[in-house]
Amino acid sequence: MIYPFLKGGRGDFSPTALKILGIESSCDETAAAVVEDGKTVLSNVVASQIDEHKLYGGVVPEIASRRHTENILWVVRSALEEADCTLDDIGAVAVTYAPGLIGALLVGVSFAKGLAMAGKKPLVPVHHIAGHIAANYLSHPGLKPPYLCLVVSGGHSHIAEVLDYTRYRVVGRTRDDAAGECFDKVARTIGFPYPGGKNIDEAAKLGNPEAFVFPHPHVAGSEYDFSFSGLKTAVINLVHNTQQKGAEINRFDLAASFQKTVSEILVSKTMKAAEALGYSKIALAGGVSANSGVRGLLSAECKKRGFELFMPEFKYCGDNAAMIACQGYFDFLSGKRADESLNAVATMSLEDK
């Protein structure tokens, strides 16, 4: 069978009107998008699995992989139809190949390889974190490197120098838990359902951020690195000790105090790095970039210093394929290509991409 999106296109792309089909499946969202010239989003389709994983309190990798397999064909087809084009109109296929859940990544990579081979299109492998950074180009087309970017997601917490559209230098990273992971684990301890970060953010708006004082861990000899494991343990111990005494704890105050602490840690180290490295242009990226505490504090600190701040629109904060297509555009122009031997990689540094 020849699928409808494989034939009948106009074939009218050029270096100045280049459409990239992006495919993203690194965790629990199956996504596809078409982006033109790295800036104009023609479609952005996301099939979320949140409701199913909520039953288990977090993402179950095996379930995620199976749902990607079920969803990817109709998601890609929908993205092409919404963009009013077929594969003939596409200049290249970009796909997330690292990092992420290996089974989930393999679904997207395998589909993208087959689609690229069938349509005789270039295949562009995209690093997931580079995609999150590129989400800012969709919301701020005028943003150009170099700048400093705070990347905060469920699995990653980085401070990275964006040297150009395809080169990065990580100057700070987490030594244990990522900030997003810490949000989810604390939320579970407090009693909020998955996804934890979103629920803590909503609860924090109803609480007193000064009610509890938590530690601000530091990494000896690495002033820009993060450590969230001790903070997570401090919150968990507080909750358990309170329960053992038969007392109640105000969940809203706890959420507000915890969120304030995480925000202070992330923003203070970012500001310190920016001042030391000479950056006055700052960007925020990753799933946790949607957090109101982080956005608010980063905005205030940048304004105080006269720094320019760029943050993605909320629709581009979480995992999506528009950001992958956007980064794929810049990787494509830089000459990055893959063949049928492309494989998924669960762990890969942004600098090694």
The fourth-level CATH homologous superfamily of the largest domain is: ATPase, nucleotide binding domain
Walk across the major sheet and give the strand order.
3-2-1-4-5
What is the overall silhouette? globular
**CA distance, first residue to last residue:** 36 Å
Overall strand count:
10
Subunit organisation of the chains: single chain
What ranges have pLDDT less than 50 throughout 5 or more consecutive residues? Answer: 1-15
Separate helix tally: 10
- Topology-level CATH name of the largest domain: Nucleotidyltransferase, domain 5
Largest sheet: 5 strands, mixed
Rounded mean pLDDT is 92
Describe the protein's architecture and organization.
The chain has helices at residues 50-53, 61-82, 102-119, 128-139, 179-190, 196-204, 229-244, 251-277, 292-305, 322-333; strands spanning 19-24, 29-36, 40-48, 92-98, 123-127, 147-152, 157-164, 167-173, 281-285, 308-310. With 353 residues, the protein is of the alpha/beta class. The protein folds into 2 domains: 4-134 and 317-352, Nucleotidyltransferase, domain 5 (2-Layer Sandwich), CATH 3.30.420.40; 144-315, Nucleotidyltransferase, domain 5 (2-Layer Sandwich), CATH 3.30.420.40. Strand 2 and strand 3 form a beta hairpin. The two termini are 36 Å apart. The model is unreliable at 1-15 (pLDDT under 50).
